Amino acid sequence: MLIRKGDKVQVITGSYKGTVGEVLKAFPKENKVIVEGVNVVKKHQKPTQQNPEGGIIEKEAKIHVSNVALYDEKAKTAGKVGIRIETDKDGNKVKVRYFKKSGNEIKDKK
């Protein structure tokens, strides 16, 4: 799975098509992600110590990773992602994600 937490993605299918948001959480074993503002569902919650009032809350639900594409902010489009192996200044081999169409490198947020 080439999409990670903190990446900007664009929804490419479904009722939220065209929406751009940040990945809040990634589930690589399930091939699903939670995107900010996408697939919002209402959940009935009992009162707890953290939420003493309970009630109906809105939260984002998981969406399959095939329904989103990484968003290139420089080119203002969503695109496919590739991986190249480069060497860093210490001589170590490092995997680098990049957009196949524009060639722009994807910076990891660490």
Automatic annotation (TrEMBL):
InterPro entries: KOW (IPR005824), Rib_uL2_dom2 (IPR014722), Ribosomal_uL24 (IPR003256), Ribosomal_uL24_C (IPR057264), Ribosomal_uL24_CS (IPR005825), Ribosomal_uL24_KOW (IPR041988), Translation_prot_SH3-like_sf (IPR008991). Coiled coil: none annotated. Residues 2-29 form the KOW domain. GO terms for cellular component: ribonucleoprotein complex; ribosome. Keywords: Ribonucleoprotein, Ribosomal protein, RNA-binding, rRNA-binding. It holds the Pfam family KOW. PROSITE patterns: RIBOSOMAL_L24. It comes from the Bacteria. One of its GO terms (biological process) is translation. One of its GO terms (molecular function) is rRNA binding. CDD domains: KOW_RPL26. Belongs to the universal ribosomal protein uL24 family. PANTHER family: MITOCHONDRIAL RIBOSOMAL PROTEIN L24. NCBIfam families: rplX_bact. Part of the 50S ribosomal subunit. One of two assembly initiator proteins, it binds directly to the 5'-end of the 23S rRNA, where it nucleates assembly of the 50S subunit. One of the proteins that surrounds the polypeptide exit tunnel on the outside of the subunit. This is Large ribosomal subunit protein uL24. The gene is rplX.
